[in-house]
Structure formats: C-alpha cells, structure tokens
Design a protein that fits this description.
Length: 315
Amino acid sequence: MPLKRLFRACALVFALPLAAFPAPFAYVPNEGSGTVSVIDTATDQVVAEIAAGKKPRGTAVSADGRTAYVSDQPNNQLVTLDLVQRKPLGTIPLGESPEGVGISPDGRWVAAAVEESNDVAFVDTAAGKLAFVVKVRGKNPEHAVFAPDGRHVFVSAEEGEAVDVIDVAERKQVAQVPVGARPRGIGFSPDGRRAYVAAENADEVYVIDAVTYKVLVKVKAGSRSNGIAVHPDGKRVFVSNGGDATVSVIDTTSHVVTATIAVGQRPWNMALTPDGKKLYVACGRSGSVSVIDVDRGTRIADIAVGKLPWGVAIR
C-alpha cells in the first residue's frame, strides 16, 4: 500500500467513534448450572451458553478476548474456554476448592485462590499448565486480583480477616493487611495506588494504600458487602450488598456513599464495561444479571442467566 494511502487509512481508523467498534461480551459463571452465559452488552441479551465444569466460579478473560479461564470448584481445576468457538478447550489441575481467578495485565499468568490448601496457584497461559504455587498466611483465600502493574497479587483471606500480598516475580508473600471480617471482593484504582476491599461481615469497604500496605480509611457500605468494581475514571467504586439487594456507589475523594441502587437478590461479583457506562451485577438468588446505567445511576435491565450466577467477567 502506498504511504499516503496507509496514512489515510490509519487516520480513518483513529477518527472512528467508539460506537463503530463492537460492544464487548460479558461472561457469567453459573455455579448451579455448570455453564457460562454469554451476554452481548450492546443488546443485553444472552447469546450463548458454554459448558464449564460442574460448579464454575471465578472467571477471567484474556486480553485478546479469545480465551476464558474458569475455576471449577468441586473438580479442583481450571477450565479453559474458547470464546470464539464458544466451547471448552481443556482443563488444568489446581488444588482443592479453587475460587476467585485473576489474570495479569500482560496475559502471562492466571492466579487462582485455592481455599482448602490456603494458597494461590499460578498458571502459565502460554504453556497451559500450573507453573508454581504460593502459600498465603490468611485462611480460606477467596479472590486473587492482580494490581494494574502486574507485579503483585492481592488475596482476600475469607476466614483470616486480612488481605495477603504476593510478589509475582519473587513467588512469595511479602505483606499482609488486616481488614474487617470476611473480606471478599478486591478492586484497584486505575493508577494502582489504592486497593478497595469489601468485608462482608463488617459491612465495610477498606481503602488500602497499595504501596505502603496500610489501611487509609473504612467506608460503611450496605449489608453483607462483597463484590467490588472500580470505575475507569477512578472517581467511583461500586460495592454489591448481598443482604440488601443493592449496589452502593462510593466517591473516592470524599469516601462517602453517594448513591444506592436496587438490584436483584444476593448481588455478588460485578464488572464494568471498558467505557465505564454499564455495570453488570451477578444476582445469585434471582438467577439474573442486573444492568446499571452508571451515568444515570439506575437499573435498566435484568437478564435471566443460569442458576446461581457467581460473577461477571468483561474484557
């Protein structure tokens, strides 16, 4: 292609509005159905169901959107899914009772919190096998979430009232941060300087300095706060309240709840679209995903999925 035509083609691509690109899919593991529901976020319709073991829970999607990694708790394994063909690819042994799953920003590692052995299993995605395991001090790890720079993984210890911090390169735990009872979901500010942790039995969100590993402030949330999603602009944090059937919106400057939005029953883990315009909330007892229009602060849809949806993953 001649150079002038190449420049014109590139300029056209960059000039296209965001609406010209397809909306992402949302992937919902249904622990009661053994499936992952695929939601087209442009239409808010379920377009496919993918078999994903016996009891799928934690789910992470590769950067290219072609592969999903799903923990299958009773089978003690990670299920890999082909998201293009929408079918299972294979399984990787993890350990007894894996739960939350996170993927590194570069896509190299998948980290899975393994409850019964109190460790985090790291899978090499290129090799498609377990690479190493890090023992954590906290009991019953629930979520394993990579910091935005990919250097550390924060792990909520469900029965340890703490967050364990793993240095990925050193392959060891380097810190532990005490928090409230039964910590669950974890999210990071876009710059990686703050971590937000929901403590379910304390009904609080803990704001942690992700550099010094100190708790900066506690924010009172709703009853049985558990899931966390941080807006791409870093100005808002969303927390699902399982006992209230609501989602609270926290202002990250004032650390005050600015809105409370009703959703389905037992809201659990959540995910935002990359543009931050919609929030998808897995509501286990309703068998649905509630969709929130973020700018308007209102629930705009309830999408029926499988039985007992555990969370949502969007890449």
